[in-house]
UniProtKB/TrEMBL annotation:
It holds the Pfam family ABC_tran. PROSITE patterns: ABC_TRANSPORTER_1, ABC_TRANSPORTER_2. One of its GO terms (molecular function) is transmembrane transporter activity. SMART domains: AAA. This is ABC transporter domain-containing protein. GO terms for cellular component: plasma membrane. Keywords: ATP-binding, Nucleotide-binding, Transport. Gene3D superfamilies: P-loop containing nucleotide triphosphate hydrolases (3.40.50.300). Residues 7-240 form the ABC transporter domain.
Amino acid sequence: MGRNVAIVATGVSKTFPVGKQAVTALRDVSLSLPVGTLTAMTGPSGSGKSTLLHLIAGLERVDSGTLEVLGNQIHRCTAAELSELRLREIGFIHQDFSLLADLTLVENVRLPLEAMGATRGDATAAACEAMDRVGLKGLEQRFPAEVSGGQQQRAAIARAIIGNRTLVLADEPTGSLDSKTGAEIMGVLARLRDEGVTVVLSTHNPANLSHADQVVVLHDGTLLSPDTAESPDTLGAGTA
Ligand SMILES: Nc1ncnc2c1ncn2[C@@H]1O[C@H](COP(=O)(O)OP(=O)(O)OP(=O)(O)O)[C@@H](O)[C@H]1O
Ligand SMILES: [Mg+2]
């Protein structure tokens, strides 16, 4: 397994129990995503995009198949190992931003570092730096309700990248933004990719696909683009 591959899914399936039925969210999904690339996942509502992001983040478990994330066989990890991986290496940007309303932006952004045991001073300094990177300098002491939707989304990105996490997962990061703000957010994510971070996002917006190195199309839980990420780095890495 090359270090140049960030995510390898092989035959991943996931169902959810709904009453006595089982809803299939993902069916036999295999893909391989190189380090330092931006992947856009698209497909109709209910096609499995969020489910795949949650599996990659270790927030949900695969039913069958194998899933390697940043060199970890996460289908075999314990809950504690998954939390550790999420905390240290993976940033997750939820569609609704999920900022805490009672905390200022800088307090929100520094939370993961504090959870990792950093001092408040160190966490604050790193949070200010992360906010600067996403264009939020000067808004550190504002509360989420006192900034725009795009600025809230930027704060969620800053929180997801603080501590130099290597994988950033974003579920519909531009979903509730106007097209200009959405384009700016895509620019922020593309710049992260340029700095070597692996970025995977879901999107309904075709305009966002132009930023992507590879596009993953899901339909009814099945991958429609079998040629996904067939770069020289990933050939033979589990997609066959
Ligand atoms: N916790 C759950 N319990 C039951 N079914 C679920 C659950 N999460 C997802 N599903 C089902 O799995 C399928 C895939 O859902 P998912 O949320 O991954 O789709 P999506 O592509 O993200 O859709 P959207 O574009 O609307 O966000 C759907 O049929 C959905 O109803
Ligand atoms: Mg979704």
